[in-house]
Write a structure and sequence with these properties.
Number of helices: 19
CATH architecture of the largest domain: 3-Layer(aba) Sandwich
Helix content: 40-55%
Largest sheet: 5 strands, parallel
Radius of gyration: 31 Å
CATH topology of the largest domain: Rossmann fold
CATH class of the largest domain: Alpha Beta
Shape: globular
Distance between the termini: 69 Å
CATH superfamily of the largest domain: HUPs
Structural class: alpha+beta
Amino acid sequence: MTAKTYKRYLITSALPYANGPLHLGHLAGVYVPSDIYTRYLRQRDRDVISVCGSDEHGVPITLKARKEGITPQEVVDRYHGINKKAFEDFGITFDIYSRTSNQVHHETASEFFKTLYEKGVFIEKTAEQYYDEEAATFLADRYITGTCPHCGNSSAYGDQCEQCGTSLSPTDLVNPVSTISGSKPVRKETKHWYLPLDKYEPWLKQWILEEHKEWKPNVYGQCKSWLDQGLHPRAVSRDLDWGVPVPVEGADGKVLYVWFDAPIGYISATKELTPDWEKYWKDEETRMVHFIGKDNIVFHCIVFPTMLKAEGSYILPDNVPANEFLNLENEKLSTSRNWAVWLHEYLEDFPGKQDVMRYVLCANAPENKDNDFTWKDFQNRNNNELVAILGNFINRAIVLTHKYFEGKVPELTSLTEQDQATLKEIEIIAQSVERSLENFRFREAIKTAMDLARLGNKYLADTEPWKIIKSDPERVKTILNIALQISANLTLLLDPFLPFSMEKLRGFLNFEGRSWDLIGTESLLAPGHPIEKASLLFEKIEDEQIEQQLEKLHITKEDNDESAEATPLQPEITFDDFTRMDLRTGTILEAEKVPKTKKLIKMQVDLGFEKRTIVSGVAEYFKPEELPGKKVSVLANLAPRKIKGIESQGMILLSENPDGTLHFVEPSEKAVNGSEIN
RNA sequence: GGCGAGGUAGCUCAGAUGGUUAGAGCGCAUGAUUCAUAAUCAUGAGGUCGGGAGUUCAAUUCUCCCUCUCGCUACCA
């Protein structure tokens, strides 16, 4: 809660990375809340702009381009287009949806770097890195493959071995190879710039831990965790040819690291939007709010503020209402496993139902913890809430008006106590919604807003106009007038949440009012004002539609299980290569968990001619007590390696299923310990 | 293993600087009602607030330990 009042608002929403399409998780975590908040502020006639755009730099995009044989620009053009359209289709109304590959951004980011550079903010460090002489370029970690020093996988990447999951540094690799030219890279010195986050630690502690105790617990806690662990300088440049070039002499072939470059995208988008951009970024009377997912907390709460602080002339975010993650039918969303509801596919299956999804995602937003999206819940909320409560109330009010008063708003005659209480309630509800929105409690806000429709239903049920129309038509005039005023108020109150449906409802009512301040007014519709015949605001979603969606996911799951993308075959080796591996049969004698680790088990393995101690990371799938007696295959001549202080003398062979489960490669019972495996 | 977040009715979630009968929506049951997309309205049944110990006159709310889920981090096949 900010005691301070602000003149204007700058809303930023996390820049989606332009190497894939958007799914429900993105919408629920970031864009629906940010859009609701922005629409609300606009409706209050606040000076507000909402900026977003595609994050288009970074190594994954260059890799995707290489894989598909197109340029990085072509990759980002494609997804920028798709995602921009998806946002528009869902009514996410950014004032600008820009992109970091455009010129304004390049200039802005470049200038920002230069300012910090000239102020002497950065630390310069020179380190050895692999260089491809044929391609005349330094190699990003992902562009180098080689043999993993841990598991012997010969196609490990420079940053990680996907076979054993170890994170690596390129210099760890045995026999490194450049994936660009296939040549053997050489080590060469290269200079990089680092942002000394550690120096800003005291300031960050004061700013966040003391001055922003009102941030959400998940955000505050995450920041505290980082600050308590101690911050380290972070490199802001990379050797890569895709990105914003480092604007310093002698920095050829270097670009700004994508995390440095991306948040500046908020600034450049604003610049592109308005020549007045500085008043949004450099005036203390602007309230800046970052909408992000939890994966971005550290960048928006620690790194970017540090950059802004170091630059000196920018304001800092006042709040960062980060959401947690959304699961789908009880499983984590996953782009690579296609476990997602893609925005464009949703609209194909449910055309015109943007608001239904907006509603469900807001009502069940992962505000405090990870939440689950299920199709059944989607159907229930649509049928029981949007259709039964909201749509039905509107329909009742309009149908009755046509039935009794030829579609003209009847006049308000005398008000009973209940009438007055009902009208008063509108304002109370509106204030409550307002409070929730100001505090970024969107699920509470939408629930409260729906109470207005509930109020309408209750009012009709209590006053029973259909009963008294014959005995007291004057009274019915008042009743329907109030029911219609509630409907008009609903268009105002629900507009931030359900913009498409409220547009439609305004059409039914021939109502043009948009201002939030009108809410609570009891004469939004003048007596005699004509309204249209109602069509349905929301329609029921049938079981078959839900089953279809579940079937779709079911198929995805089967595909994943069965034809799980076969990992590409390793490069061919010779028979000699093979014979260098000494594989033996063994039996596990004892096994115990290595203390203070999550996955490691220490085993004694009988190889017949000797006993070995082997440490293996299988504790997540096997209990130590079930291991003794198990036959295993052992790579016996692997160089010993110290793991958690224990020397592991060899490696036990395991196969890994697509779902990550591990299984021993078990020789048959008849195999004698120590026998060679050929 | 360390750190952070979370574990509250069948489901999805609120809440409490510790204090009388712990809340909402959906679902369920019963009743009312028919203007309405079999929609609505009322009433009700459901919870030893993850488990254990401690502090206190009093804990679901504070402290400690344990456990489960998610994330970050370390270690790692």
